[in-house]
Amino acid sequence: MFRSLHMKLVLIMLLLVTSLMAVVGAFLITSVSNFYFDDFYTQMDEVFGSENAEFVNSLRSGAAQSDGAARLQEMLEANSGALGINYRSRNYYILDGVTGAYLVGSDDETGASLAMTENLLIARNGSVGCKTDITASYMDIAIPITGGTNFYIIYILDDLETVGDLNSQLFIIIMQALLVGLLISLLLSFLLAKTMINPIERLTIGAERVAAGDFGDTIEVDSSDEIGILTTTFNEMSSVLHTTLEAVESERNKLDTLFLHMTDGVVAYARDGALIHGNPAASEMLSRPVEECSYEELFADIFPFELVLGMQRPHFAEGELTVDGKYLEVYLAPFSDEKNGGVLVVIHDATEQRKTEERRREFIANVSHELRTPLTNVRSYAETIRESGGELPQEMEDGFLDVIIGETDRMTRIVQDLLTLSRLDSGRTEMQMAPFAFGDAIEAVCRSIELEAERHRHTLIREFDDDLPTIEGDRSRLEQVMLNILSNAVKYTPDGGEIRVSAGVRGDTVWMDVCDNGIGIPAADRGRIFERFYRVDKARSRESGGTGLGLSIAREFVQRHNGTLALVERDGPGTTVRLTLPRKQKGTRHG
Ligand code: ADP
After folding, report:
1. Among residues of the chain, what percentage have pLDDT more than 70?
2. Distances from the Cα of 304 to the Cαs of 199, 317, 341, in angstroms?
């Protein structure tokens, strides 16, 4: 209860008033007592002092009489006013100087039982007893009077009752003043609370609200004093804090979204090895949830945690991991050298990259190999002709020259096919999309292959649906695709075979099947015949002028028409290749 500022203020005010009144009271009461004492001895001095020697002499003369005590009484009565004798609190007594016995006085009752005070003893020894004892409950003076043989003591005693009454009155007044003072201080403290403590309380509530993250309202400023300035500054600080927090929050959200959607895996560890963050890509790449594994389990083989922590930025460690056939590149770096730093791990899935590199290497090796064979042939036949020095029989020389021309043609075909693929890869091939009759295109291709089929005594059967529609596409390229499939059927079917070309429409697509009863494709090779340079039987392909690139080019063209080119699984010998194409293209596609 006394911890609130308001209560402290009230307490301070009350203490202040009480102590002030206590000091004032003590001062007043002491002053009154001192004044009373001073006044008593001044009065006595005025009557019995050396300045009034005449009166003292008359006292002595009176004392010398046989009824000395009565004479003294008369004279004292006559001066009772000057002595302040009031017969109540202040009285006079005349004592026998030798025995100390009471003789007469203004109060016989007290006189009969007078105590032998120090001043009385002094007077009995012949001196004036006027010692002041501030602690005593009385004040007195004893004056020895010697007249002839008579020795009297005039003793004046004040029981301080008047001072006591006065002090009691004073005490009551001080108490009343204290009460009023306390009431005023209470009132003042409430007023002060209103002007000083209320704004501080409002500020405290506001600070608590801000600490709890509520930046909604600003605190009302209703004064321009220090508290007003403090409140204004607090409002500004809270607004800046709010803006900064919003900016930090937005940055954090951005980072969270980035981590969530980035294709690279990111894992962050605190200095003590605890996981701070791990994105879904990291778990997916590592094929296990990063939240459930420690750094040691995941990356210790690449680089120990402590060593990464000890690195100076911008240095970092890197390594490789192979997880479930995936090839992962791992980069480890310390983030921030401060106490709250840690280790950041970035994982990059380089599987595709590796495969592409591998494919490229394989492709280059294939190209070199494919070109080297015809080149070797050309060179050896040309050398033979030259070395013969024109001695070769004409027929033989013609045969050799035919081989040279044939091989050059083959190389030209390979180079042309490679150029076509390169253009497709680099997106430089533009499809000339236009509507054309699907059936007409198949018919044209069949006609162009008819002669070749006849040469091999194949039976070419056409089975087209009647209502083959008009489709959208690059006719010449699609005819090239169809010709490739058909010529493969002719090439890879032993003479006298049967080649069936069927076509139809199914919903929004058209299809064409080319089915032969030739050598077929072994199951192991079926998945690969669309790869570049892949051939089941290299010798046979070369013999028939194939390059091993025809089907891969065909598939690229078909894919650019949003269609498919695939082998059909079927029983019996031979092969069936199916081409499907959408009737309409979704806008003209390039490349
Ligand atoms: P190529 O120029 O060698 O014919 P392709 O890319 O056209 O190249 O064909 C790839 C390989 O697929 C051929 O070498 C061949 O082994 C196989 N192939 C394609 N069509 C047939 C088919 N109808 N019958 C048997 N094998 C085929």
Report:
1. 98
2. 58, 10, 16
d(CA 216, CA 248): 18
Tokens representing residue 489 in the block: 């059927």
Last residue of a domain, one of 111, 139, 159: 159
Dump pLDDT digits (tens) for 560-588: 999 999 999 887 789 999 999 999 987 64
Instruction: Domain of residue 78: give its range.
Output: 49-159
Pocket around ligand 1 at a 6 A CB cut-off: 484, 488-489, 492, 516, 518-521, 529, 534-537, 541, 546-552, 575
pTM of the model: 0.53
Q: Check which CATH number belongs to the domain holding 413 and give it.
A: 1.10.287.130
The pick from 492, 537, 549, 553 for probing ligand 1's pocket by mutation, whose C-beta has the most ligand atoms within 8 angstroms, reads 492
pLDDT at 552 over 70: yes
Atom of ligand 1 nearest to the CA of 553: 6
Cβ count near 556 (within 10 Å):
20
Q: For residue 173, tell me if it sits in a domain.
A: no
Assess whether 338 and 414 both reside in one domain: no
Ligand 1 centre and the CA of 370: distance in Å? 16
529 assigned to some structural domain: yes
Cis omega before residue 304 (within 30°)? no
* Mean pLDDT value of segment 514-529: 92
Q: Does residue 372 sit in the same domain as residue 342?
A: no
> Which residue, 398, 426, 454, sits at the end of a domain?
426
